Amino acid sequence: MGPVFLLPKHQKLSTWKGDLAKMTHLQAGLSPDTIEKARLELNENPDVLHQDIQQVRDMIITRPDIGFLRTDDAFILRFLRARKFHQADAFRLLAQYFQYRQLNLDMFKNFKADDPGIKRALIDGFPGVLENRDHYGRKILLLFAANWDQSRNSFTDILRAILLSLEVLIEDPELQINGFILIIDWSNFSFKQASKLTPSILKLAIEGLQDSFPARFGGVHFVNQPWYIHALYTLIKPFLKDKTRKRIFLHGNNLNSLHQLIHPEFLPSEFGGTLPPYDMGTWARTLLGPDYSDENDYTHTSYNAMHVKHTSSNLERECSPKPMKRSQSVVEAGTLKHEEKGENENTQPLLALD
């Protein structure tokens, strides 16, 4: 069940329904709860929605150095929602969105799911996207870090696959308002793999996600992280805003603290949830459609491994994933407990994307 929103004090139900009837076509399809959430949390007012959008559009002339390739109402609205209808901040995000693409042209050449690099990353589960949303209506994205085979996928292609996935998902107005959750499982992620996370590519990712994309991230959760992932903080700290450092939580291999924030009924079994193990091919099949052939389908043979059928085509063989390493998280039996004093380090915020 989604969150319940109470009517403002002294507002009659008939008046509230009348306000909803006045909403613009840009709010069509949103649930009443989501419309009220947008009003309360994002300062979204249907009476002045078009004026807010036009004021952001009017600022475009101040940045002649940037090619604003899309400026329609629905597109600008997602930037206003991402910045709680602060028009100057929304325009800054809009400008950074297009500037990031101008400065990284190679990343956005052939920026579609059937690009070979993006396709490989998608098939390898970068990212995973759960079908159902959490109790706040947020979409849950998954990253199984150990599945990064550096001989198959460059970090840039993984980032491109994530950005493309977000572009598809952010078309949903409900997600523009409710936002996203990202869970990164660091099980079996080796020091050698971590050594490839250089400051330059981390900066590229942070700029693309934190500074240049109109998504609301309600939390970024690390599980099963080794000590050297903690050490990455010193690399990324200079690139982070103060506000964004509050949104990543380190849960280690005890997922009780994760379940206090994301209920187990919304999580696959890899994260101690009640859902079946995540099928790595789910999101890839959604984006690739007929290009994702049955021969690429995953079959679950165990809790910790997933296998892929071999294909005769060289291209399909190149794009087919290796056996996937899965989470080895441990969840204590019984009710969820509050953190002990000595456990605080495990769930302290590290970084966030907003």
Say how many strands there are: 8
SS-based class: alpha/beta
| Secondary structure: helix percent | 25-40%
Taking the alpha carbons of the first and last residues, their distance comes to 25 Å
Spatially, the strands of the biggest sheet line up as 1-2-3-4-5
Characterize the overall form.
globular
Number of helices, where a helix is a run of at least 4 consecutive DSSP H or I residues: 15
Mean pLDDT: 81
Biggest pleated-sheet summary: 5 strands, mixed
Rg computed from alpha carbons, rounded to a whole number of angstroms: 21 Å
- Order of H and E elements: HHHHHHEEHHEHHEHHEHHEEHE
The proportion of strand residues reads 5-15%
Taking pLDDT < 50 over at least 5 consecutive residues as the criterion, the unreliable ranges are: 1-5, 7-11, 18-22, 294-318, 328-354
Write a structural description.
The chain is an alpha/beta fold and 354 residues long. It is built from 15 helices and eight strands. It has helices spanning 13-21, 32-42, 49-58, 73-82, 87-103, 116-123, 155-169, 173-178, 191-194, 199-211, 227-231, 233-236, 256-259, 281-288, 314-319, and strands spanning 128-129, 139-144, 180-185, 217-223, 248-250, 298-300, 305-308, 324-325. The strands form two sheets. The protein has a five-stranded mixed sheet with strand order 1-2-3-4-5. The protein has a three-stranded antiparallel sheet with strand order 6-7-8, with no helix packed on it. A hairpin with a 4-residue loop joins strand 6 and strand 7. Helix 3 crosses helix 5 (87-103), helix 6 packs across helix 7 and helix 7 runs parallel beside helix 10. The longest helix has 17 residues, at 87-103. The chain is globular and about 50 Å long. Residues 1-5, 7-11, 18-22, 294-318 and 328-354 have low confidence and may be disordered.
